[in-house]
Amino acid sequence: MINYDYLFEEKQEGCQEVLRELRSGKAQLIDIRERNEWEKNHFKCAMHIPLSYLAKGLGVESLKEIKESNKKIYIHCRSGTRARKAQQVLAQYGCKEIHIIPISMMKMIEEGFILTA
């Protein structure tokens, strides 16, 4: 796997804070990778809405419901590239307060995120 973390060095924030928000129920992690990637492995705390669905407007209502419940929404993919695209797509649907996990999945694992078995 290619490490794209260098793209986010200026934006890196503590993943420990993100983990605390997720564990306390104050946030929801959305995995936007495609189904075949999700089925291979995903983080236990993640909900799956592929970017291809979001591009068609599918899943946007679920995100709005999460936001209405006063939860922060974090999105991630394998490297961060699709997450940035998803952020742009979601802005078109009025979902503007979407946060990108600014590191790769490998770094997320190092920071304490747990994959399913």
In short:
With about 120 residues, this protein is α/β, with parallel strands linked by helices. The chain has helices at about 15-25, 35-40, 50-55, 60-70, 80-90, 105-110; strands at about 25-30, 45-50, 70-75, 100.
Task: Characterise the protein shown here.
The protein has 117 residues and is of the alpha/beta class. It has a single domain, classed as Oxidized Rhodanese, domain 1 (3-Layer(aba) Sandwich). The protein has 6 helices and 4 strands, in the order αβαβααβαβα. The chain has helices at residues 15-23, 35-40, 51-55, 60-68, 81-92, 105-110, and strands at residues 27-31, 46-48, 72-76, 98-100. The protein has a 4-stranded parallel β-sheet with strand order 2-1-3-4, with helices on both faces. Helix 5 (81-92) links the parallel strand 3 and strand 4. The longest helix has 12 residues, at 81-92. The protein is globular and about 35 Å long. Residues 1-12 have low confidence and may be disordered.
How do the strands of the widest beta sheet line up side by side? 2-1-3-4
Query: What is the CATH superfamily classification?
Result: Rhodanese-like domain
Mean pLDDT: 86
Number of domains: 1
Largest sheet: 4 strands, parallel
N-to-C SSE series?
HEHEHHEHEH
Radius of gyration: 13 Å
- Number of DSSP helices? 6
Share of helical residues:
40-55%
Gap from first CA to last CA: 19 Å
Shape: globular
Number of E strands: 4
Strand content: 5-15%
Main attributes?
117 residues, alpha/beta, Oxidized Rhodanese, domain 1, four-stranded parallel β-sheet, 6 helices, 40% helix, globular, disordered N terminus
